[in-house]
């Protein structure tokens, strides 16, 4: 017994010392590996898709650029925690995107001023205009990060409406002969009359006319419609009046009251799903997936890749259970801004290079190379002949098999390499024909649609989801205001108010919709709402709005 | 009580104990007590950039913020309530299960039952709450059963009423952890001298009498120790389960201190607030431990120290 | 003993007890087995189909895709190797150190027994927070190393107290007679006390092993950039996070045949992690289910 114990201890000791021995700090830092490829490390403070070590396209890009980057993503932690630990430890990966905590990285002196180098890298220098670069300058006048997603090259190309809308199933529109639906009242009338005529699906399952997702942060499906109904874009936390340049609280507008009163009325009629406010996200997706739900408000990305897929794979597209967006406002004749052109330029975060990176020039050269058209095509389209074909007209397309592959997660991990948090382009390719990204290629898009969707689009004379809504010009230079409200903390009265408002809305908006007496319910809500001191929040938003407008004014 | 005195002989005798205790406590000091420097953050406006030693001191502001906030008082109440309910339910169930399992005399079925009982421990909360949510939904099995037996006439929306929330959480805890928690008691039962059972049998004791007079007293020290430890953990009533089962309609009863800290502290990068709440929890826990340890001492029961 | 009982007439009350107990156990087994079987069914069901709900004990659209996805995860082998290693080493280290400490504080005449106990009890209820802990480990050279898995959590007051309670139940007479024979504390610990503590050692070993097996947060926090020290659970967490993330990335015209979802991957990953423990468990189980066949206290 004793002998056994001693030997066990010995082995233990040996093993641990062995492991402690090779505990040197791990790779990265532009170290050159055996194949002569520079290896960098990167951390992005968002959840992301990890790719395999021997990823094929990553290898191809490494051959072209001489560099590869080992990316790691946020897992089971908040961005603030992750970045806070990096700062405390004082060691960083070579590349970093700190998300909402980017400013903390800057304050910690962890980042390299990109503007001292970028003149040598034309693709980086030309990525933004001077005005855009200036919006990125921090308090010391330097630029530390590059927002990756908003750059549009050439003509904008968008097929999907990736954002929020009132969605409706094509079978409802088809039954009604593809009517024009412009107001909330028309929308609910349509759903009601359809449900009266067709209370069940083909297999006898009862329809759910309208459901509201209200799970935790996803309660935007309930709460922020008033801004769109009044014809404003998705500034998130407030409406900005472009005439007077003041912020407006969309929670208390007459439109907000009308919207919730309508929901209350429909709830009492049984049109609004009675389980709306207690269902989890999974249950909501399950409902949508069975094709029972006729309509709802949601963001496209929040339901399409799950429920949308399930509907297609169950063949429910043939019953017209797919969703299309409708251009709805509170009254007839208003312009809607459910869809805006131009990317949302979010100056609050982006890709940065850290002081731990020993080869800043090499790192910047790599970013520069990633923006070259051939590398960009590799990143987003893949390998020609494997992931896409080129037609006689020079247009890229994918065969059904390629589409299946590119949607498969194992294939993606082994083969595709988006470098998705490095700077990239939207819009049109340098060749002037193709879209920078496959999802925005019109021919590809239309070919992939089901017959019922094509029929619906044809009836309205449109080709894409976006055309269903129409496109509004990009909002003013302050847009989007949510990039500021996201960064509020309890250290200011506005931040405290913002947090409290969230709490109150989570509780009272469902109560208002379910209230026996709407007026009384609304009064209760307003009373509690005003106790949160929304004016504190609004005045901080107003200050930020003015700062942004002033910044932009320098260039006019 | 015998007073202890460190005589020279005793010291020599106990030297090996003292040396080992010192080494192990040094380890404990480094890994458990040194990080408590971080408690300074509660009295600072902590910025990761400046670190613990250079951040600006703001005194008791963070504590004031907490205790002036009505909703913090409410989450303390929720945490205590759920902590106590969970403690009682999981505790009673685990002991009951261990004892009843011990009464199964067929070895095979005993092993099988025990193996199955601890399996839910390995499921994550998100899986367990998902299943529970389904079962309790409007068309779920519970509502269906209640309707079939005509106990209710229309489905109950269990998650829309504040009154159901705490019992649901308690049930989920019992469901997931009973078998796992019972393992300690099963181990303790093995230490009971079988001759005691034989003696009891000779005295004509039935099953219940044996459980009452042999099994329970035999595992009482274990019960006491676990009870004391868990009393100190009452404020750790949980985070995930309440977060996953809660919704806006019941948030007044569902939010715990940990959820509050996440909402106001971590997600807003306010480390100081989170630390202040953590200190509050530690102080209450240690206070509870001291009180209950003393009660145990007065009753001559097994105690923590 | 068992035979003796069987020969006796089973009384009415005894029979009623057995029946009630049997019913209770069957009900308990059904209720606890259901979520596991449900997870098993979902793990074999096609992902998008499972989104529609309504899967109970049997998969509706059978597939192995979830398992192949999990098992094809990059670095999974490294992760599994490190996890096995940390489970073995971590459990051994924890068992030895906790047992030593428990032995020390369970000696009734040990002069510092009370203060050492208090010292450890307090560690259960205080926590310096993420960042100070991180800085400490970094300054001790534990970051980017294997040691961070097995050194920091080695001694825990909970496990120590569980062992201590058990040791206190062992009659003092054993120790006293050994002392009269001239045995020192080391001998008493190794030869007298430890052999009697097998059930509680098995219990604590199980607790530590399961904790080690399921750990991933430390791998992420301290070895994020050192993939050679990744763990199984961390790799599975990353996979899950990747899959969840796909639903928020804009992907056009996804053809969805045989696609996977967070729910289905989570189910498969749960089963994959659970299986080794279920297999190893019977070896430990004999120590706390079979009852006292260890020869009693008279050794």
UniProtKB/TrEMBL annotation, chain A:
PROSITE patterns listed in its UniProt record: PROKAR_LIPOPROTEIN
Taxonomic lineage from the root: Bacteria, Bacillati, Bacillota, Clostridia, Lachnospirales
Protein name per UniProt: Sugar ABC transporter substrate-binding protein
A Pfam family assignment: SBP_bac_8
Keywords: Signal
Domain of life: Bacteria
Residue runs in coiled coils: none
InterPro entries: Bact_solute-bd_prot1, SBP
PANTHER family for this protein: ARABINOSE-BINDING PROTEIN-RELATED (PTHR43649), DIACETYLCHITOBIOSE BINDING PROTEIN DASA (PTHR43649:SF12)
Annotated signal peptide: 1-20
TrEMBL record, chain B:
One BP annotation, GO: transmembrane transport
Places the protein is found: Cell membrane
Cross-referenced Gene3D superfamilies: MetI-like
The UniProt record lists the keyword Ribosomal protein: no
Transmembrane segments: 16-34, 80-101, 223-245, 271-296
Topology of the protein relative to the lipid bilayer: Multi-pass membrane protein
Principal localisation: membrane
SUPFAM superfamilies recorded: MetI-like (SSF161098)
Family classification: Belongs to the binding-protein-dependent transport system permease family.
Name of the protein: Sugar ABC transporter permease
From TrEMBL, chain C:
Coiled-coil region(s): none
UniProt record, GO biological process: transmembrane transport
Cell membrane in keyword set: yes
UniProt domain ABC transmembrane type-1: residue ranges: 80-284
Membrane topology per record: Multi-pass membrane protein
Main location: membrane
Matching InterPro entries: MetI-like, MetI-like_sf
Keyword annotations: Cell membrane, Membrane, Transmembrane, Transmembrane helix, Transport
GO cellular component: plasma membrane
CDD domains, A to Z: TM_PBP2
Pfam families: BPD_transp_1
Gene3D superfamilies in the record: MetI-like
Transmembrane segments: 15-37, 80-105, 117-140, 146-167, 188-213, 265-284
Subcellular location: Cell membrane
PANTHER family: ABC TRANSPORTER PERMEASE PROTEIN MG189-RELATED-RELATED, POLYGALACTURONAN_RHAMNOGALACTURONAN TRANSPORT SYSTEM PERMEASE PROTEIN YTCP
Family of the protein in this entry: Belongs to the binding-protein-dependent transport system permease family.
This protein's name: Carbohydrate ABC transporter permease
The organism of origin for this protein: Pseudobutyrivibrio ruminis
